[in-house]
Amino acid sequence: MALQVGIVGLPNVGKSTLFNTLSKATNATAANFPFCTIDPNIGVIMVPDPRLKKLEEMVQPEKVLPTTIEIVDIAGLVKGASKGEGLGNQFLGNIRSVDAIIHVVRCFADDNVIHVDGNVDPVRDKEIIDTELQLKDIESVDKKIDKLQKAAKNGDKESVKGVEILKIYKAHLDSGQSARSAPVQPEEKRFIEDLQLLTAKPVLYACNVDESSVVNGNEYVEKLKEAVKDENAQVVIISAKIESEIALLESEEEQQMFLQDLGLTESGMDRLIHQAYLLLDLITYFTAGVKEVRAWTITKGTKAPGAAGVIHSDFEKGFIRAETMAYDDYVKYGSESACRDAGKLRLEGKEYLVHDGDILHFRFNV
Questions:
Q1: Average pLDDT of 179-205?
Q2: What pLDDT is stored for residue 276 in this prediction?
Q3: Largest CA distance in the chain
Q4: CB-based contacts of 57: which residues, under 8 Å, 6+ apart?
Q5: Which class for 18: exposed (0-12), middle (13-18), buried (19 or more C-beta within 10 A)?
Q6: What is the pTM of this model?
Q7: Bigger pLDDT: 298 or 276?
Q8: pLDDT of amino acid 46
Q9: Contact at 8 Å (CB) between 304 and 74?
């Protein structure tokens, strides 16, 4: 199942424009009124990786397949959503399934673009969404506490422990903080896994700015950064309008010239995608052959058999070993055979932790 990142925010902050650009799609209607996105739009985005292009040049394969992430554009949220206001419950239901959240915050002033609350205030906007998500999470936690308390009365030790941990989450949420920062041990998080708490998901703030602020930001961006400094969250400056213009340019050369004219070295889209990838604690390994050069997504800390299983379950079940080369060695020596001759091709077993950029060839027997 593809990893999913949800784009959320108040109405008219630029979510659909951002989605269209990220996924190179045109199916998310961008309009100057709330709720122009009614159903969640889902697109597939390619994770930009210059290493893949270099491997293509070296191997000359029949095809090249980058790694991807699904991105979900979810209807704008308004105050009272946790109680069903606006598209409330529909929004909150859609967001439960995503692995991480890109929270788009409006950080530009424009009298021609309506703001649902009348004026631009990124900290207030962020807090509105935080509050609605927290209120919904409190409902979920309360229901599970009631359920576990019944089992705890019968002396079930796991239920007793569960009630104790869930009460920590409840107190944390009641204080206006998100579940992701609750003071619990990693192994204690198992008690909320089935709840898919909205505020337990990792978050990336995308500050949507005007063209003049795309390099250094503005006062709105600084206020948001100050507000989230203790959240262990990333903040990315981006102009959805500029990115949509870049996406219309046909060649990579034209895009680079456009970026240079703005004083940028890479697009906001690329920065955003990379940060989302890192947010999920993911890394990339490659397979490289004449038929196909391909990037594969795994979680950091995955062992070789698990990495093989991403390709096919049979690879994991019958795993024997992984022939492994580091990307830098492959580029330096120019081929697999040259890496072997230089002693840079290694045979790794079941306990090997795959590194970002590894080029792997799996041996298996089923």
A1: 92
A2: 81
A3: 69
A4: none
A5: buried
A6: 0.79
A7: 298
A8: 80
A9: no
Kind plus residue range of the DSSP H or E element containing 41? strand 41-46
Asked if the model's pLDDT at residue 225 lies above 70, the reply is yes
Bridge partners for 364 per DSSP: 319
Residue 4 β-bridge partners: 70
- DSSP alpha helices (H): ranges in 11-156? 15-23, 50-59, 88-95, 122-152
Tokens of 4: 């999913």
In this structure, what is the dihedral angle of CA atoms 159, 165, 169, 174, given to the nearest 10 degrees?
80
Closest CA to 296 of 56, 67, 61: 67
Token reading at 81? 């959503």
What is the SS3 assignment for 240? helix
Terminal C-alpha separation, the chain: 23
CA–CA separation, 25 and 17 (whole Å): 10
The pLDDT of residue 160 is 92
* Separation of alpha carbons 191 and 165, rounded Å: 7
Token pair belonging to 196: 């898919």
Q: What phi, psi does 9 have (nearest 5°)?
A: 160, 175
Helix (H, G, I), strand (E, B) or coil at 70: strand
Task: Report CA-CA distances (Å) from 188 to 150, 165, 184, 244, 344.
Answer: 20, 7, 6, 43, 41
Q: Which two tokens stand for residue 235?
A: 């903040």
For tokens 């989450």, what's the residue? 169
Nearest to 41 by CA among 10, 68, 5: 5
pLDDT for the residue 90: 57
As a whole number of angstroms, the distance between CA 134 and CA 39 comes to: 22
How does DSSP classify residue 294?
A: E
Within the chain, how many helices (H) and strands (E) appear?
13, 12
Rounded Cα–Cα distance for residues 110 and 113 (Å) = 6
Any idea which residue has 């990379």 for tokens? 274
Give me the pLDDT at residue 273, please.
82
pLDDT of 51: 95
| Cα torsion angle, 80, 86, 92, 98, sign | negative
How many residues are listed for the chain in this entry?
Answer: 366
* Phi/psi at 183 (5° precision): -80, 70
Contact assessment for residue 205 and residue 235, using Cβ atoms and an 8 Å cutoff: yes
